[in-house]
Design a protein that fits this description.
353 residues, mainly alpha, Serine Threonine Protein Phosphatase 5, Tetratricopeptide repeat, elongated
């Protein structure tokens, strides 16, 4: 009889205790405990655990930044600075660490260190828009207007950056334009260069494309905004406001037939929108289609009886239709509802001729 081989004893292989792996395990455990405290509205205990998690895994950028945001939000800037400084001392730290370190320094009044941190953030991550904004703001607070302008211009010069950076730079430049750092002409020129660069990259994100078109429109570039809106409407017809924006462009460009078509579509889907009926009435009035204009104006007035211009536009339509009594009755309503203005008396005089 053949002898069966004996079953060998199972050998237990010891797990190699890699310090980095153990640190991450500890970080996850601390973070999970922090979430438990947070769910129980124990914010102080949660932040303690979150901080321990971040300190255990300082090279985890997302974790460190999340905890730093929490600390800055809660006014615990000293510990935020300590955490971010330790993360910045790790090999090859990202620029975002320095950008948040600069913000934390600013919160405690250490402006020189805040400037240095944001400068380092830009050096390490030239496309970190927040660092440019923070640094420009610091220079302005110190009365260094020329230095602030130089920082903003260096951001505007990064036309090879992502579309998100470029449209963000347009917003920031416009904000500082309102503070008189740039002339109207300079602001518009910089904005259009950045928007052209963003559009040339052909971003796929519909929200980014819509923002590019919106900014084109804001800077008076209807002809550049129109093809972007048209393309978005074909591919993403459910995005709210696209047809309204396109209709607005068509009206500006005196392409009334195209505007009317879009407004009719909007009216069918949302028949209770007074603005749509108002614009349709205006287009009909321009085309001398007075009956149609009266119908839209009357609908708009029923939907929004507090919109004063409607009274005068509808009165004008009544006058054009040889209905002075209706015009005067409407103007009397306006006279009793709103402050007396020249336009009421003007239309009343025409109706009585």
């Amino acid at each position: 009889m053949e002898k069966k081989p004996a079953i060998s004893e199972t050998k237990i292989v010891p797990i190699k205790e890699d310090p980095e792996t153990l640190q991450r395990i500890d970080a996850l455990a601390q973070f999970a405990t922090g979430i438990h405290h947070e769910l129980n509205d124990e914010s102080k205990e949660a932040n303690e655990r979150f901080l321990k998690a971040a300190l255990a895994d300082l090279r985890n950028e997302a974790l460190v930044l999340d905890v730093a945001r929490r600390l800055v939000r809660d006014g615990d800037n000293v510990r935020a600075i300590d955490l971010l400084t330790k993360a910045a001392n790790q090999p090859s730290p990202p620029g975002t660490i320095y950008a948040w370190l600069g913000l934390a320094y600013l919160q405690v009044g250490r402006t020189n260190e805040a400037v240095q941190a944001n400068q380092e953030a830009i050096k390490l991550s030239p496309d970190n828009l927040a660092a440019y904004q923070n640094l420009a703001g610091l220079h302005l607070q110190a009365g260094k207007t020329n230095e602030a302008i130089a920082v903003l211009r260096s951001a505007a010069a990064r036309t090879n950056a992502s579309p998100e950076f470029l449209i963000g730079a347009v917003d920031i430049l416009s904000r500082y334009h309102r503070q008189k750092l740039f002339t109207d002409e300079e602001n518009k020129e910089q904005a259009l260069i950045l928007l052209d660069a963003a559009a040339e990259k052909k971003p796929e994100n519909p929200l980014v494309l819509q923002r590019i078109a919106d900014l084109y429109l804001l800077h008076g570039q209807s002809e550049k905004a129109e093809p972007i809106y048209t393309d978005l409407l074909k591919r993403f017809p459910s995005i709210p406001g696209l047809r309204e924006r396109l209709a607005n462009i068509y009206i500006r460009l005196d392409r009334n037939a195209e505007a009317e078509k879009l407004l009719e579509e909007i009216s069918r889907e949302n028949p209770t929108d007074p603005a749509t009926h108002f614009f349709l009435g205006s287009l009909a009035y321009e085309a001398k289609q007075y009956d149609k204009a009266a119908e839209h104006y009357q609908t708009a007035l029923k939907l929004n009886p507090d919109f004063e211009p409607l009274y005068y536009d509808l009165a004008g339509v009544h006058i054009a239709r040889q209905q002075p009594a209706e015009a005067l009755a409407l103007l009397d309503k306006a006279r009793s509802k709103f402050k007396l203005t020249f336009i009421v008396e003007f239309y009343s005089g025409i109706a009585q001729e």
